[in-house]
## 1
Amino acid sequence: MANEVMDKEVSFEVNGENVRLTPNMIQQFLTSGNGKITPQETMMFLNLCKYQHLNPFLKEAYIIKFGDKPAQIITSKEAFMKRAESSPNYDGVSAGCIVLRNNEIVYTKGAFILPTDNLVGAWADVKRKDRSQPHHVEIGLKEFSKGQSTWNAMPATMIRKTAIVNALREAFPESLGAMYTEDDKNPNETATKAIQKQTEPSKTQNKLADIIGGGNDATNNARELETEPEPEIIEPIEQDNAEEIEGTFEQPELL
């Protein structure tokens, strides 16, 4: 039964061409990295390609898996541009870098910057024919740079591309809202990591497990988990007792 599901072919159209895809094809030929994707990740990728009309054989979408980490489902920048340009409301995009030049913030055009410029981010404007104002996006280099070789070699090109993708997604949320590139901040990936972190046993839970199981460190762990003793409460001194205590001290003579 499982083999039948993995071999079941899904057919959909992309740019006038018919694309046929099976889960086995995704696992064997379309997955990058050294990990094996799960059936759930396989189906998520297949359905993304199907419903967003992406051709994985042309690298419009691809899936990456390293070890036991969650798979990354990536959409290429070219797929974003094709999807935006297919909309009758698309009216062009302009983008550039944000640099610190002579202690002033300068918005450049394109990815060209001077050797003395301090690159701090990028901007992008996406115009729609049915909107009076373009969708303007500004992003910071420190927030998006992953410190990888590509980012180190051409940071201006990478941060400008990321700004364009974010502006396109804001301008066309109905068709690009659930798609993310490799350089994007993917909230789904962040949520997955947060869920994994929450499910990891805490240090206290591990100690409790050792105590219950009677491990070698049970006694030490039990001592660490003991609550601190409550502080001693000092009763207030009543007025009569205060006078008696005060009378026991003689005032020093003044010279």
Note: The longest helix spans residues 155-171.
## 2
Amino acid sequence: MEPSKKTLSMSEPAMTCPYPQVKICGLTRPHEAARCAGLGADAIGLVFFPQSPRNVTPEQAGAVVAALPESVAAVGVFVEAGFSFIMSRVERCGLSMVQLHGRESPRLAARLTAEGVGVIKALFVGGRPGLTAVQVFDADAYLVECARGPLPGGNAMAWDWGAARDFGAHHPLVLAGGLSPDNVGDAIRAGLPAAVDVSSGVEASPGRKDTDKVARLIAAVHGSARHYAARTLQPVFRPKGGALHA
């Protein structure tokens, strides 16, 4: 597999992480987002997809983003939305990155990048777009999960996270799908990602986060540093403040 144009070095700035970054996705409440950030989350995700039980309005999303510190990335999650719709949410809500979670085109990703928006492209093991689509995309990072369940996303289903390990050796990998405080350590050991993305695995109910679960998950991620003794991890999330932080 050829490395993507945005390699793991990311060239600027030269900061490293001792363990994977953490994105908590599907936030709907400002105080829960602020708590996740306080516990050590590097990014939060806001879902703009009407079919999702975690879908948020621009007003809800703006309030969540306003509650976050500048060091945390605010990521909007979109499924086959158009450029104008995505940019309207970026500008209105203060998003620092977007996650393209459907069959979006490389051209859309390039247009967003040209506007200064960070891009995470979702790729699917056993689905479309598959991992080989990395050859035509130029994104800040690639979220990889399996293609199972009724909705775009992991659908709380665990899978063979090790199937993404070779991909992550060449590209900035965000591992997702069925992660929880109890299995995230196993997933990290298997896939060695640069970051993990968790939603339902730390919820009390759809869109409502259980901060005790969030704390346990982040502690487990931070305990995985020993698996990266021979590797240098670069941050993949663009925080609200604009500069990458370790």
Note: The mean pLDDT is 90.
## 3
Amino acid sequence: MAYAAAEAGARLVHLSSDALHAGRPEPYADDDVPTPVFAYGAAKAAAETAVRAVDPGAALVRTSLIVGDERSRQVRLCLDALAGRGVLFTDEVRCPVDVGDLAAAVLELAASDYAGLLNVAGPDAVSRAELGLLVARRFGLDPGGLRTAPSAASGLVRPVEVRLDSSRAAALLRTRLRGVAELLAP
């Protein structure tokens, strides 16, 4: 895509992920160097490197868990855990973003000349288990059935605490990046 966009003189906004970071208690700034700990994160880091090499004028958006209505993947995972069909991790922290807010931010960036990395995520850092509680509240469900565990119990190798500092995006964009507590308010 980067080659095609460059050849056509088209504007490129590349979507990346917070999964390219290893995790730490402090928020990650826009320009923090990737430190992937699993294949998906490594692939995202490699894609960013390739896009920047081919099209230095591209905007590279690092985002987090994308939430929407009850059909969105992240909300479905929470609903499944509330119904006893899955587990949400108590220590895997992210900054969820609304799908509409993310789409509006991408459209703004497409119409701008912003180049480089930009974190575009919500301001609320929550664990997946806390996200499940917010989903339960939003849909009027009993949170008592929510199945949770620390991520180590899963055997998966993924980053645990990944908070994106989106203050640069908040200052640059007209789109307001709403927090997940607001998004999932009853």
Note: The beta strands are 13-17, 59-63, 66-67, 88-89, 93-94, 97-98, 116-119, 126-127, 148-149.
